[in-house]
Amino acid sequence: MAKWATLFIKIIMILLILVSILVYISLKSSLPMLNGQIRANVELPVLIERDKNGISFINAQSANDHAFALGWLHSQERFFQMDLLRRNSAGELAELFGEVALAHDKKIRVHQFRQRAKQRFNELPSSHKSLLNSYTEGVNTGLSELSVYPYEYLLLATPPKQWQQEDSFLVLFSMFMDLQDEYGEREKLLGELHARLMPDVFNFINPNGSEWDATIDEVNFSSPDIPKNSFEPAPIIDTSVPNTETAKLSTFSPFVPYDHEALKGSNSWAVTGQLTPYSSGMLANDMHLGIGVPNIWYRSSAKFSANNQDIEIHGVTLPGTPALIAGTNTHIAWGYTNSYGDWSDLIKTTLSDTDNHYLTAQGPLQFETDFESIRVKGQSPVEITIKKTIWGPVIHEEKNNLYALRWVAHDPEGVNFNLLELVYSRNVESALDIAKTLGIPAQNFTVVDTHGNAAWTIAGAIPDKLGANLSQLQWQIPQDWSQTSTKGHITWNGYLAPSDYPVVINPKSDRIWTGNSRVIGSSELNKIGNGGYALGARSRQIANNLKSRQIFTEADFLAIQLDDKAEFLTPWYEFLTHSVLPTSEINDVQKQSLTTHLSQWQNRASIDSIGYTIVRQFRIELRELLFTELFSQTLDKPTDQINYRTIRSQLEPAMWAMITQQPSHLLPERFTTWNSLFNEALNKTINQLEKQFDSLDNASWGAKNQTNIQHPLSRAIPALGWLLDMPKHQVSGDSYMPKVQGSRFGSSQRMVIAPGHEDTAIFHMPVGQSSHPLSPYFGAGHEDWINGTVSPLLPQATKYRLTLQPK
Length: 807
Known about the structure:
Strand order of the largest sheet: 1-27-2-3-7-8-9-10-18-19-22
Largest sheet: 11 strands, mixed
Number of strands: 27
Keywords: Calcium, Hydrolase, Membrane, Metal-binding, Transmembrane, Transmembrane helix, Zymogen
Shape: globular
Distance between the termini: 65 Å
Structural class: alpha+beta
Low-confidence stretches: 238-249
Protein name: Penicillin acylase family protein
Binding site for Ca(2+): 342, 345
Active site: 266 (nucleophile)
């Protein structure tokens, strides 16, 4: 019997070894080509060089050959990422992952992005269409040149589908979904609050700005005034449902989860040549997005000729598209932050006498219906029905209320490939002209040039809402567009002409900064509106840093990008240590421990600071206690699950006003005094941190703020994590400071560029170029991003050389 057991174990071991060898061979065979020559559909030979970190440099003779080569590289290195991006917006993930992705596909299909992508491609000018054709051919050639499918498809046991020209538009639509509100959730929430709260209370939690805002035109905003009314529902609300407080609070939490509080956004700033060692301006940009394996961006440099110009470019591309997204062409350097303007409207659709018709200003109209078929891996296709209005698709249907969405992403003006034209700009003025025509999710566009100029505008289509002030309340909450206002019919009137865009060029301060909060405060802000701005803490801290010096080098800009000083939490630290802790009811041991750690809090989000963790957690616990009960009073019934995350950043001024002025009518009912509220928040802070770390002594910010950067497949199959994921690191930084950093969220790249001086430019990118775990440069550059080590923008010495030869 023992012999048979030994033989069985040996057979199992041999099989495991054979399987491991087979898996290794398969993985190895799916690696991209690095050296040699291949025949390709290019006009002239294209040389692709890569350095030890895999940073590519494409030497081509034409824009079309460059597009082909870039498509080839994207496909070889990142095809699975490209596939997920197109399937994400097309609502086609279930075809790859099965029923687990069906709910997402059903929800997103209402936008019919696949259909819109085909339309947008057909509308392209011939030059752009030609470039997308070349790029698509490069993608499919690169895919066919792999010995086996990319390893992700081997694990999923599903072959990849070839790339189509319109798929590049689907990648852009995925960025719209990432950076804008594709379901109108914020507007819907504000509409519900506006209907349930007294006007002064609603204005209190939805202010037009606050003292945190730091605009480049130096317009000051004030924090909201304490309202006279409480959070009790407005009298017009039906209160027939009893306010069962206990039942509500046991199920209701307005802000979960708390992993990070930063919005999808970014930092970007610039100075004119007056403040640099050169004659050129200088730009910094770090775009804040979710970080995974691979990183969303692919670094690329290139030289080619087009439009009677010799072009040299360096920066980041988005796999699935042929354009340089952000970077430099040696004449200008440009970058983005998400603008958070008002780029969509939720329309409350009023039914006519039958369910098949709805009211409009022109009379009742019949709903248009479309049918979509969703393919599901391992199952029969699922059919869904889409209901459409003249304004857009019906996006919400609940409680006999229908809401349609009017969104820039649905219109021809919203999506195009004018990004391809930026590489030909030679100065700020021409770059601004192009930026105003870009078909991307509307961004704050910051640009500098070699002549020393610096400028800002909005890149992307801006709706013209009948000449209205987009900051007015009517554009922030759902409206009934079947009605007319005192000024006429409420609707969109096309889009602003480029000449009407807000622009700032070479301000008196010689400094421009953007950080997802209000960039300008003048009447020009009314053209942009309010789509949910970030609190201005980051922008204010960046502005303070920029005002502290008169000359900036690239290293100075990088230092600002890595700034983890806790300016935002400093008032909270002072409030906790001076107002709360001395009168708290915690025991002496706890008080001594808190006092010790708070005295060493360092005033920054450093990895060894326990005091920072305590102050941050106290603010979160206090906000939860304060708003859970106040907002629970506005719920229709205890089972309501309203998420207030979309407005949480704008609640900070109201919360600070309440805890410092302590009005009795805004104190949650279950507390007898404000001090009792503060004391419970402090106790919850201690309990939460002790539960998580066993002791306050272990609750350093680094222990809490650790990177967890994963491949999509390892999230589903944790056993693959050792192979596919990045090592975990304790990291400094947080949400309300220039160095935005969470466990899987933060700077998807950092760059500092003075155009014309690219040899001294700085660039960081997490994860590295390759998503393949056997790549010789898998994860290369990640440590520089973690540690903030100065690393170059330009590719270094060539290590790999590949030539695309004409067929």
